Each structure stands twice: as structure tokens, then as C-alpha cells.
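Q: Predict the assembly, please.
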Amino acid sequence: MHVTSAPAPVFFPAVLMAPAGEGLSLPLAMLVVFGSAKLLAELFERLRQPGIVGEILAGMLIGPAVLGWIRPNQFLGSLAELGVMFLLFRVGLEVKSSELMGVGRTALLVAVLGVALPFVLGWGILLAWGESQVEAIFVGTAMVATSVGITAQVLAAKGYLSSQSAKIILAAAVIDDVLGLLVLAVVSSVARGQVNLLALGSTALLAIGFTFIVAKWGTPTVRRVAPRVQERLRGREAQFAMAMCLLFALSWLAAYLGVAAIVGAFLAGMALSESAGRRVQDLSHGVTELLVPFFLAGIGLHLDIRALAQPSVLLLSLVILVAAMLSKFVGCGLGALGMGRGDAVRVGVGMVPRGEVGMVVAQIGLGMGVMGAHVYGVVVFMAVATTLVAPPLLVMAYRGLPPAEPLEEEVFHLG
Amino acid sequence: MHVTSAPAPVFFPAVLMAPAGEGLSLPLAMLVVFGSAKLLAELFERLRQPGIVGEILAGMLIGPAVLGWIRPNQFLGSLAELGVMFLLFRVGLEVKSSELMGVGRTALLVAVLGVALPFVLGWGILLAWGESQVEAIFVGTAMVATSVGITAQVLAAKGYLSSQSAKIILAAAVIDDVLGLLVLAVVSSVARGQVNLLALGSTALLAIGFTFIVAKWGTPTVRRVAPRVQERLRGREAQFAMAMCLLFALSWLAAYLGVAAIVGAFLAGMALSESAGRRVQDLSHGVTELLVPFFLAGIGLHLDIRALAQPSVLLLSLVILVAAMLSKFVGCGLGALGMGRGDAVRVGVGMVPRGEVGMVVAQIGLGMGVMGAHVYGVVVFMAVATTLVAPPLLVMAYRGLPPAEPLEEEVFHLG
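A: Predicted assembly structure:
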């Protein structure tokens, strides 16, 4: 009779120590990651803190940093990647491209200043610290790219997605990503010692062209084509199936052209924003709810605090963290100052999280053999810590602003 | 300007030949598997055939058997496993445990006869074919386990889940799975040459105890506990998060005790059937819609027709296929004869698909080194072919019976 009532903790150690290939069985890995993320999110909500911080900390807790139950692996990494794709897809569904285009100029200024300042500051600090020129450039590059997923999740949960500042953040994050791609392309070719201007130029042209064309003409095209295709389809949930195909296709195209897959996912959502029905929103929301904890916990999973045991590394980490926060806040805030001080602060804070994008840059540097392990640890710490610090600041920055979409609020909040 | 309009087929070969570790990038792999499954499903619906057959064939088409674009890998395998878990979870949500218990006796008879006949027939044929005793026993075992996912998907899509015969099929499939576990446990220990009766007995007791207890008392327990827990939770979509945790926990417990994870998933759904709200159903339905094509295409992905090039292997495959279909049909049909001829036929046909379960048994045999590669190929062919043959037969068997749940029909059919 003890089968169903056997408490999980008694089983745990034995099962977790199982010598099976990937460590945990699939359902157990799902339970540990998803369950711990939701548990800590609940705890943080009760402490009146953003639940998202709890989900990232859950990854640190179950990961190598503390308990060591779960190690980053390919499957969890893929779920995390899917999770952030669905998150940006969902966000795109709420955003009209015309509104995004309307804030284009401000967003461009926000993005450019928010790229220049962190890059220069990161580069300067590393040089002053006595690290190599190449490492300094890579750290500067890793400090460039905003991880919009964190901010998007907070704004969606609080019902601020359609506020003016949210529009600027989203548009600036897309431009920021394209700029980040170009900086990375230049930096990589400098590090390799061979700069091919023609290749760089065509990369830039393709990336900018793709993003602009899909952002500008995606929505009207889908609005015109979708109904005609749909009325001919016989399958169940055909609209959802088509939406998924568009999501995967644009994500792949974006990644293929060098922009992040999540930019493609966001553009796919935005292209569908005027034609997707309630049903598509609900179904994709289900996938998002399941997978986003894997993205969030996945960020925490990558932090290895042993790298920070050396006092000098820890000090550099803290300096870089402060620099990363201040430079984005000031750079992006300055860019948005024309919208008033309140929105400038919101945009500045909203662009602070670096998350997975900074880690990818650091991994490229590590893979090319131009970045030391301790500098890699510094970048990962900066990436994780900015995602932890931003949500509470963001909630504070938006306090006082009435939620822009009560209806969306309802969708996101009710069980 | 050719960026967005660049036709995928032009890119395809180059990208697909990319020497990257897993072959395809994540979004492209998702697009190829999901897109091709949905495309062939649409094609089959137009030909008035079950879409599910198209999805399985899509796996054969893109897999090693034909185009070779995608190879089975750990990530796709995990998505497939999740897919069939969510499928059974969704089916469980539609089923009341009291109704399942009501057909318990018939289901037990159906399961026992549907296990005995295929086992004896598979064993006999292999011995007559001159294969070894151990291989004969393993093929018999692989012919035992019904893959209820295929039948459940067809019945759900056509709105027959709450018919009497569907109840018997589901209950019998659960019992069938437990019996299959016991047969496999006995066969494995015989093959290893060491039979530990005590271990076998405790395996049996735990598996039966777990299944029976959760099936019988899961629903009332959840109905009593869930509202109290929910009113204390503050997180967004807390009900969905709780449902997911129950799903993963019971799937893991089931797998841990040796029963298939999908039995746990089905029991989790059933336990929630009386307390899960519409929102939980919609959200989990979204995950199901996304992942089920990976389960279906994954079945086709495993077929390697090169193994069937030898005429003698091909002949054995066809003989085993016919034996697998007839023995389940006759065995299960006899067991359900008390319900009338119509339901007996429906139950008999519904239990025919073997799918992934038979393949797992064959892989165990292969892993233990007691089964030759050609016999493995025969079993995989039997497993895939029974899933392809069953859906059209099932649609025929249910023709004339009015759909039992128009409301469910609507949920599954409307876009």
C-alpha cells in the first residue's frame, strides 16, 4: 500500500544517482525542472517578488551550482530554446507591427546607444584589468545583446505589453539583436585575423532586409493569405498547425541569416497578430506555459559559482555586473529621454537583462580559444545576475502606471 | 528582396547537408517533422483516409527509409515520448474512472486473451521458422503490448472516446500494459538464465497495486485536495502548473515501477477528469497538438526498409504482421463478445496497433544480445505496419455508430 504514498524524497537520492546515460528519466527531469521552477515562483510571489526570479533561482538550486540534481544537457537546452521562442511568439501575437514601426526612430536611438555604451565600457574595463585585447572585445560584445525574453515575460504577466515603453523595448530589442549580430560578426573576423568586408556587408544586408521586410509586410500578407488557405484545409486545428509552421519557418530563416531564432519567432507572432483567433492564442499559450520554466531555469542552470571562488574573479564579476547594468540603463534611457523621464527609466531598466544571448557570445569566444575560463565565468555571472536584478526593478519602474490591457491581464492571470 | 521569398527547397539540400552535430538546427528540425506530418495528414484527409496514417508515413518519408533528412535522435525521441504522454493525459481527462471500473471484468478478459494469443502465435511462428527459442520468446513478447496512443488519437478525433467500446479498449490497454510488463520481466530473467520469483512477485504487486490504487482513488483524492491547494496558490495558471506536476510525477512513478510512463500519464489525466477546468484542458491540448506529430512521425522514422530487402525476411515480416493483427483481433474480440458483435469487432480492431511498445521490447532483446538484427527488423516492421493498418479499419468499424460526444467533437475539430 505504500506505493502511491511513498514520499518522493525517499526515492530521490537512489533514482537521481542512477547511472543511466542522461541521469534522470524523462518524466523525472520534467518534474524536477518544471516543479522546482513553479514552486520557487510561488514562493517569490508570496514574498511579493517577481515569480520569474524564483524560476531562474530554481535552475541554480537544482543545477551544478547547488544541489547538482540536473546538469545542462542537449534535451533541456532544446526545450529552453523552444521555450523562449514560444515566449517571443506569444508576445508578438499581442503586438501590432504598425505600432512598432511608429516608435521606430526612438527605438533605433535606444538600440544604438544601448549597444555602444556597454561595448565600450566592457572593453575598457577588461583592458584596464590587464586582460588581452581579444578577450576585452569579446566581453564588450557579450555585454551588448539584451535578452528581451525576461522583460517580455514580466511585462506580459503584469499586463503592460501594450504600453508605449513596452513597444519601444520590443522594437529596440529587435534592432539590438541585429546590431549585436553585426558586432559579433566583425569581432569574430577580427579575432580570426581575416576581415571580409563583402561578407560582412552581405550579412548585414540580409539580416536587416529580412527583419525589416517581415516586420513591415508580414502582417498584411498573412492577413490576406491566411483565410484563403484556411478555408481549404480539412485537418483538425489547422489554424494552429499553420501558425506553428510559420513560427518554425521564420525562426529558422532568422537563425540561418544570423539573427537570433527568437527574432524570427517574434516576427512570426507579429505577422499573425491580426489574423490569429482566440484558439491559436490559447493553444500556443499552453505550450508557452509548459516550456518557459525550462528557459528560465535553464539560465540558472548554467551558473557555476565555483568559477567565482577566486577573489579577483569575483571582484571583476561584480564590476562587470554594475557596468553592464549602468551602461544599458544610461544608454537606453538617454535614447528614450524624448518620451519623458518615466518612460526613459522603464526602457532603460527593461533593456538590462542579458540572459542567454551574452552566454552564447561567451561560448563562441571559448570555442575559438580566445577567451579564458575565468573570463567566461565572469560573462555567465553577468548574464545570469542581470536577469535576476531586472525583474524587481522593472516592477518598481512600472508601479503607478495602470495596466494597459485588462483583458490580457485576465488571460495571463486566471487559472 | 529575395530573402523572404527564397523558396525553402533551394536552401534545403545545403542546410540539410550541414555538418553540424545533430544535423539540423532546432527550428528547422521542428519545421520538417511537424510540417511534413501536418501536410501528409491534410493529404490523407482529402483522400478520406485517417490523417494519423499520413503523419506516420511522413516520418517514413523524411526518415532513413526514404529521404534521409532526419535521423532518430535523442531530442526527437524525447519529444515523441512527451507527445504520447500528453496524448494519453488528454484522453484520461475525458474518461471517468468509475466508468472504466464498470467495464473492468470485460476489459480483463479482453486483455488476457489479447496477450495470450499473440504471444503463443508469435512464439510458434518463430520456432517453426527455425529461429532460436530466446528470439521466439522475445518476438512473442513484442507482439503482446498494444500501443493505445494510435487508437486513442483516432477515437478522440472522431468523437468516440466516451463510447462503451472505447472504455473497454482504454481499460484493456492499461491492463495489457501491466501484463506486458510482467511477461517482459519473466522473459528477460529467463533469457538471463536466472529467475527470481520473489523479485518478479514484488514487481507484479507494485505495478498492479500502483495502477489499481491510482485508478480507483485518484479522482476522489484530487477532487478533494485540488480546490484547497488552488485557492492558496498565487502564481499565474496555477491549476495548469499543478496538472503538469501530477502528470510528470505519475508518469515517472509508473515508469519507475516498470509500467509504461504513458499509463501514469493516462491515470494522471483520469485523476484530474472531474476537477480540471476548461482552461487546463485547452492549455494541455495545445501541447498535445504540437507534440503528437512527433510521436506519430517518430514511429515512421524508425522503419528501415533496407532490413526487408532479403526475401526471406520480407516473407517472415508479412507472416508476423498478419499473425499480429489476427491474434489481437480474435483474442480481444472474443474477450468482448459479451458486448455484442459490433463492439467486439471495434475492440478487436482497436487493440491491433503495437507502435512504440513492441519496438522497446525488440530493443531490449537487441541490447541483451539475444536477438538478431533481421528479427529486430521484422518486429519494427510489425510495429509500424499495425499502426498504419489499424486506423482505416477502426474508422470502418465505427462507421454507423453516432459520435458519442458532439461537444468533444467540436473541441477537437474547430480551428
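Residues 1-22, 406-415 of chain B have pLDDT under 50 and may be disordered. Chain B touches chain A through 70 residues (CB under 8 Å).
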